Amino acid sequence: MGKRSGRKKIMPIFAGLLIAGVFLVLFFAGQKGEPAQNPLSQKEQEEIRAIIEGGVEDSTWWGAKSKDELRAILVRYYTGPLLDQICADAWAFISKPTDWYWQAYVKKIELHRQAKDIVCAEVELALSDAVTGQIEPGKAEFNLKKTKEGWRIFTALYRWPG
How far apart are CA 58 and CA 53, in angstroms? Predict the structure, then answer.
């Protein structure tokens, strides 16, 4: 019986902690990014939009003659492990003949500050076939961070239909 009475004392404490935990989760779940009094400045928005548009639309990397030249182009837009992965993938792509003649374009960008130096961007994209003119819509979510070189994309998630 000693064990049972111990459980009766612990259960109200556990229930109280559980309720407090649920309250905190619900409270913080309602928090989105930084407070409205700290929006992105016009200059920050322009810088971020330029990085996103460059990262999506700049196709000069197709003409890179070396891995170093390729990295010098892509470092303008990307950073961290994402930069390393994109450089490896892009080099593998341009090192072989291709019949890929599509160009990606940014149609719309919506920015959300997540922290002082982190921004999430929801982006509407379009892929245009250079031969047929066919357009394929798509979406992307980019996370950018402020580095000593300026804003850079450090994560990217693309969603293309089909």
Answer: 8
pTM: 0.75
Beta-carbon contacts of residue 67 (< 8 Å; ≥ 6 apart): 87, 91
Residue type, 161: P
Can you say how many angstroms the Cα of residue 156 is from the centroid of all Cα atoms in its chain?
4
What is the rounded distance in angstroms from the CA atom of residue 69 to the CA atom of residue 16?
60
Instruction: Report the candidate in 102, 90, 110 with the shortest Cα–Cα distance to residue 127.
Output: 102
Q: Residue 38 in contact with residue 58, Cβ under 8 Å?
A: no
CB 40 within 8 A of CB 119: yes
Q: What is the pLDDT of residues 98-108, one digit of tens each?
A: 888 899 999 99
